[in-house]
Amino acid sequence: MKRIVSKRKIGIAIGLIMLSACAVNPVTGKKQVVLMSTEQEIAMGKQADPQVLAQYGLYNNPALQEFIMKKGLAMAAISHRPKLSYEFKIVDSPVVNAFALPGGYVYFTRGIMAHFNNEAEFAGVLGHELGHVTARHSVIQQRNATLGQLGMIAGVLAVPELVKFMDPLSQGVQLALMKFSRDDERQSDGLGVEYSSRIGYDASEMAEFFTTLERQQAAGGGGAIPNFLSTHPSPAERHATVAKNAEEWKRKLKLKDPLVSRESYLKRIDGIILGEDPRQGFTEKGVFYHPELKFLFQVPAEWLLQNSPQQVQMAPKTGDALMIFSLSKGASLEEAANGNLKQYGLILVESKKENINDMPAILMVADQKQEGGTLRVLLTLIQFKSNIYTFTGISELSKFSTFQPTFLSTMRNFQELKDGEKLNRKPDVVRIKTLPQAMTLENAFRHFNMPSEKFEELAILNGMKLKDPLSGGTLIKVIGR
Q: Among 464, 467, 330, which Cα is nearest to 475's?
């Protein structure tokens, strides 16, 4: 006999569940439904942190890492959640961005560090990202189950099943790339102003930096638009609001001479890598080179490429195929091959051994069964010196014959890099120069022999306009090696 439960009792039960899931927001002081405890939030960030570092890599500059940690902890101490165990890190990415994970993990790219022109700009964005943590925005977004973009390559894939082969797109990276609502971004802007003001900085500089970011994005540089711009109100509205809030906090805290610290910051970033680091791999005229690992291979014409410490991902703009290049584990080619089949749940169709440019290799065709059909995979494992490298080409079975020649062309063009110029390619770095006399920014670039095609890019990097007059002794950024 079925038990009859009244609607009133169901309503009471739901109410009790909602009540148990309510928590007081540390920033607003209001109750909100959050289906995650603080302990769970911290555990989520702790689990995701190594995944983020595996995707982007930690930037090798101990002095800058110490700087962001010191400033971050000082700001966390006056925040709405001072008792979290915060970690602040600079990741090795040229993209101009900053992001935060639940539980107190905050990341800045070396790309955004290169674009700040004083400590106050840095502190404003640091406060903004800290605000996402203190207001528990990531946890709320988890509740709403809205995840952001998964990177350039994932964004073009027309077959969702292909994404499963992209190991770096783990939970950690998804959390890092989460987009927040406009209200969340407005709130974090306000917290950025408050927190940076409370540790003595001029928060109005934060508004000026957002203008630099808009110029940089309009010029098409620096990769994807930073998360904190992508869902935010118009730049004009944002600039005005932040500037107004900054003045209010100056009055409230009686800040007579808030810190900007331009020269000390510029000296701190002298030598920071700008743009792609060729030592980690670079593409030139349709060829991918890796100077440190000493190999090269051709990239299919018109395909997009995304390089990370874990994988090189390539895909046509149509999004109906994917090719991944990565390292494989195994004491032999055979062991590595079996490991790949097991990892992706592949059913072997055929396999053969061959030499690729005097290197032993195994080529396998395998299938992965999906609810909506079958994916066909071409795996090529190549033994080069002490490493086993794997190319994985994937498409729907019906299109595999179309993409197989492209897959094979790239895979069979893998070879040792011997070109001395490519092997010794150095990255571009930011160099700080002192103007010998008064001149415009444009004339300063000419004085320091910068190529004219780089003038506008350099003006944005300096947060200035080319016709801006500068006095003698002013520090500016130029590009060096």
A: 464
pTM of model > 0.85: no
Residue-wise pLDDT tens digits, 40-90: 888 888 988 998 888 889 999 999 999 999 999 999 999 999 999 999 999
Q: Residue 444: helix, strand or coil by DSSP?
A: helix
Single out the residue of 201, 188, 160, 173 nearest to residue 95, CA to CA: 173
Count of C-beta atoms within a 10 Å radius of residue 254 = 6
Residue 158 identity (one-letter amino acid): A
Domains of the chain: 25-268 (no CATH), 278-423 (3.40.1000.10), 429-480 (3.10.350)
Identify which of 116, 111, 17 has the alpha carbon closest to the alpha carbon of residue 432.
116
Asked if 104 and 129 count as a contact pair (C-beta separation under 8 A), the reply is no
Tokens found for residue 304: 């997009």
Indicate the pLDDT class of residue 9, thresholds 50, 70 and 90. very low
Q: CA 287 to CA 409: how far, in whole Å? A: 12
Q: How many angstroms from the chain centroid is the CA of residue 393? A: 25
CA 322 vs CA 77, 177, 363, 407, 430: distances in Å: 46, 21, 17, 9, 35
Phi, psi of 430 (to 5 degrees): -80, 130
Q: What is the mean pLDDT of residues 284-304?
A: 96
Residue 237 tokens read as 């509205």
DSSP designation for 371: T
The pLDDT of residue 359 is above 50 = yes
From the number of C-beta atoms within 10 Å of its C-beta (0-12, 13-18, 19+), residue 74 rates as: middle
283, burial (CB in 10 Å: exposed 0-12, middle 13-18, buried 19+)? middle
pLDDT in tens, 365-419: 999 998 878 999 999 999 999 999 999 999 999 999 999 999 999 999 999 999 9
pLDDT at 221: 54
For the chain, report the end-to-end CA distance as a whole number of angstroms: 81
Q: Give the whole-angstrom CA distance, residue 381 versus residue 412.
A: 11
CA distance linking residue 19 with residue 13, whole number of Å = 10
The phi, psi pair for 256, rounded to 5°, reads: -80, -40
CB 183 within 8 A of CB 241: no
421 or 308: whose pLDDT is higher? 421
